[in-house]
Amino acid sequence: MIKGANAFVPTVPLRIAVRAGLDVSALLLTETGRVRGDGDIVFHGAPVHPSGAVRMLGEENGTAWLEAGLTAVEEEIVRVLVVGSTESGALRDVDGPSVEAFAPDGTSVVRYEVTEAGGETAMVLAELYRRAGGWKFRAVGQGYVNGLAGLVADHGVDVADEAPVPSPSPVPFQPPAPVPVAPVAPVAPVPFQVPAPTVTAPQPVPGTVAPEWSFGAVFEPYTQTGRDNDVITVDGLPPGPVVVELAIRGDGYTGLWPLTRFNKEGDTLVNSTEEDFQGRLLAHVPGNGLLRLQLKAEGPWQLRVLPLASARRLTEEQLESRGPDVLLHTGGTADLALHYRGDDNLIVNLYELAGHDDPTTLPRDENVVNEIGKRRETVPLPEGPLIVHMEMADGPWRARLKRVQPYSGPRNGDGLANVTDIRSAQSGRSWWGRR
Question: 247-296, pLDDT tens digit by residue?
């Protein structure tokens, strides 16, 4: 599961593993998005919620365990947050943090690997929330640079009154006793559940891939959260193409447009009625470095502006996700195999960067897929560097490369002159200052 993705889970007592030695806590929230009081915080100092629905089970070999008995959660509670934090250092220094939920019989239900941690010291890793008479799990990955105190304060805890904040001291591990399986409440059917994708950077094979992606400037990612309709303004960005990542919790209409210097809507980036919309869009920062976006949404949202180099790269390993996305191809000629399981438009465009040496602009795009409904497509790709823009994809999809040919080597003016490093983009090296 990738950040922002969600899936129904069975309404049973789930055991939740948080790995990589993080200090773990849980917050039980009402419809207002806030706790009712200190009792709605489960942590080392208060390991069991008064209702008994959520409890700490202990820690073993760097894995902390929680239990969330979904059948016992009080009706007033609509969300259960799973929180991870560090005692010292940033989350980007933690090796392989992840959260995984298991059914009582030990079957893994969902798993989320955190891949975009930065300088934060606390993070909402995931949440369980009510939907259509059942429960869903969402991979959240929302970090807080002001730490655990800032996170709990955002959810109604008065830190000044010394409300309990989870202690880093580990709880001795106690193997949980078997839990009787309660009758499973009916939930809305899931026509296609996306398995957890592998999002680790591909390992280069000599002679088959281009150098590290180096088109466009690297800058510190910008994050903004809000609710419902808004205008987002980001100043001081380097001119050129960027990735805009948007995640919305709600079932209404979602629209996103760049605003021109005359405050008029530009070309549509998002036009979707998808529930709990998520996706990555390709946007362009004008020469003045000011990106303005008009958002129409119903519900809470998070928007991030990322450098192009932070986009995931296509490999022969299967990549699974949902919604629009921006993907990179750096190898030789190949065939792109797509399996789309949505009911609406699938639109895919290519931007071939060979011979394009201006990182502030993009060449003319080539439309290679424009279909409606479930599809299996195979698209021939030219040699990289190449942007594969899934402009519209309201639904889950799978993508992988086939018949990848050796990379023939850099050519003059192939878009690689502005040398940067994808690892710098992923770690958030600052390129601009104002936000």
Answer: 998 888 899 999 998 999 889 999 888 888 999 999 999 999 999 999 99
How far apart are the C-alpha atoms of 59 and 171, rounded to whole Å? 6
* Dihedral over alpha carbons 34, 36, 37, 42 (to 10 degrees): -70
Q: How confident is the model at residue 88 (pLDDT cuts 50, 70, 90)?
A: confident
- Residue range 312-354, pLDDT digits in tens: 899 998 888 889 999 999 889 999 999 999 888 899 999 999 8
Q: DSSP characters for 182-236?
A: PPPPP----S-PPPPPP-SPPPP-TTTBPSSP-SS-----EEEEEESSEEEEE-S
CATH topology of domain 6-161: Lipoxygenase-1 (2.60.60)
Q: Say if CB 277 and CB 325 are below 8 A apart.
A: no
For the chain, the structural domain boundaries read 6-161, 222-427
Please, are residues 432 and 238 in contact by the beta-carbon 8 Å criterion?
yes
pLDDT one-digit tens code per residue, 145-180:
888 988 998 898 876 544 444 444 444 444 444 434
What is the helix (H) or strand (E) element at residue 135, kind and residue range? strand 134-144
Residues 6+ apart with CB under 8 A from 254: 246, 248, 270, 271, 272, 273, 274, 277, 296, 297
Strands 98-102, 13-19: parallel, antiparallel or unpaired by DSSP?
Answer: antiparallel
> What CA–CA distances, in Å, run from 66 to 23, 215, 378?
12, 43, 43
Q: Residue 310 is encoded by which pair of tokens?
A: 């932070």
Instruction: List the structure tokens of 2.
Output: 């990738």
